[in-house]
Give the backbone structure.
Amino acid sequence: MKTKCVSVLLACAMTLVNAQTNNGETKMDAYISALMGRMTIEEKIGQLNLPGAGDITTGQAKSSDIAEKIKTGQVGGLFNIKGVEKIRDVQSLAVEESRLKIPLLFGMDVIHGYETVFPIPLGLSCSWDMAAIELSARIAAIEASADGISWTFSPMVDISRDPRWGRVSEGNGEDPFLGAEIAKAMVRGYQGTGDKAFSSNSNIMACVKHYALYGAGEAGRDYNTVDMSRQRMFNEYMLPYKAAVEAGVGSVMAAFNEVDGVPATANKWLMTDLLRHQWGFKGFVVTDYTGINEMVDHGIGDLQTVSARALNAGIDMDMVGEGFLSTLKKSLDEGKITQDEINLACRRILEAKYKLGLFSNPYKYCDLDRAKKEIYTPEHRAIARKIASESFVLLKNEGNVLPLQKTGTIAVVGPLANTRSNMPGTWSVAVDLSKPQTLIEGLETIVKNKAKIIYAKGSNLTADAVLEQRATMFDRELGRDNRSDEELIKEALEAAENADIIVAALGESSEFSGESSSRSDISIPDVQQKLLKELLKTGKPVVLVLFTGRPLSISWENENVHAILNVWFGGSEAPAAIGDVLFGDVNPSGKLTTTFPQNVGQIPIFYNHKNTGRPLADGKWFEKFRSNYIDVSNEPLYPFGYGLSYAKFEYSDIKLSANTIDANGELTASVTISNEAGVDGAEVVQLYIRDLVGSVTRPVKELKGFEKIFLKAGESKMVSFKITPEMLKFYNYDLQYVFEPGDFDVFVGGNSRDAKSARFVLK
Ligand code: BGC
């Protein structure tokens, strides 16, 4: 009955809208103007409020404190409530019991899947497969929307060059060009594209984050200060955010860090000048969790002051802290903010609701049947398994230890071998942690009865129980074993004794990386290293299946272990996918999107660095008075773009279609890639360019294109990249986006280090 009244009311409002469109306003503008005309200032401020779900997640929606706020128009949206029935209930409070019946947004951190979980974003990026990445976002949107969610806090596109930072796991690595491609793919996957965006109830609104530069915190410490030149900002960090805006992302999340000495949340240059005036962003900006309140500790004022500054800067919605709700009216009365500023923020939030179609159907995302049919389906899981196998990076394979035979006895050893909850990886808030297989079960699915798998834990995650506890929060415990290190190793060696091959499942637990999980030591933890050393002493082949959310310093392991397969955290279907790759049913094709350092002292180390005035000559690793270290070479352990295959790819020299181009011209760079092995495989062919002389210094190499190809055993294929002056543009000293005539080196190869090169001139 009540629902019917709402529909009648909405229909009346729509009639009003159509009458007003003659004034030149769009239908949406007119609808919102009419609605805002009826709103009190308190109700407008209420739309800017995004509390956490709080007691709604555990208690009764209808009797909570938040329920009261919803009914009195003090809430614009809620986040991280799981369950369509609960969401429907809460939505009904807004659209049936509040004065103006404005629907709520329901957000969630759907970062790499919903219940079907895909690899952590860093892993996903290593697939270099834009169609797969888009599909992962699409499936995440289908599942989340089937469960009542209309808004996701993704994609996270922060460029980072610091593996000490735990949140490198959530981003796409160190390269802005690749990061921008992934940002676009994710936005398309969540929202749909063009006129089709938000057209169905399986499209949800994306939120690009964390704007801006969150990945560049000093010393890799989370939430830490960021300070960099505008050149660096624009040339090396901003591209992915801008790409998301160009792809039509509906919302932006402000970063916690400061930019130019002002917290991003109060930074008007960032939120208004750049985002809206220069990039043309039309959606709304939400703070990060208590981002406004934290500005008190940043030291720029009390809660009223920082709330006013956030609104002045161009923030529209306040996540959790209720600084807006509790102080904006007072600031308005005191003339610290204007009515127009509140109207603008309120309008942007109502626009988002309108675009999502919530005014015509507030229950658009609350179809109770969909949740039963569309979440964690066999089809979604099969796709997740395939994508997971594409994200793994084969780092070493001495003597072709891999792929393994499905025969004999395999000892699977290590603290990550027998856990379900650690498979999905950090920021998988909607997953049912009891559902993923363990690695042992995953491998058993593949070998069936053909090979015998024996298991021993071998070690705890870390010797330090407190550290292990911190690294296994949010129900990701590994069940600490109270036996001594020696006893655990002894048991592992007994298992190894009876095996033909040892698979060591080592590395990080899923919460060792992620938010607020910065590390100062990025090696494999102590007791696990000890175990690995003992296993190697058996003389049997050891395959390290490396779980990690960040690049680790594994120089010793690289020297000594026979094979290393980096599996990141591959999502809910990871165990079977790992089996697919270990046993050769899938040929690994992942390529690193982040450099692995030799040791922590080399950080930040990244491929697209500048040359300096004292570069080290090629092939040298130390020379006095050159830019280098006395105790370690400048080389990374594994460079950006690196990853092995069971196939073997040979690259021909580069053929350029011309040696010069002019400002309106273009040329092509072609290479032929041959698969010289007896197995089929996929290769990511990468194009890099170096601008040899510029008005400002230029990186030694920058990714400008890539293509993932599939080659059958013995097959060859030509890959051609078009090079245009547009691709040679960069931000100059005056921040103009220009290309400059001169010499350019072009590189094509299977990673950023080992590439063929040729030279051309831009006239
Ligand atoms: C994180 C965001 C996240 C938000 C909401 C914050 O702590 O930085 O990435 O979207 O919480 O859960």
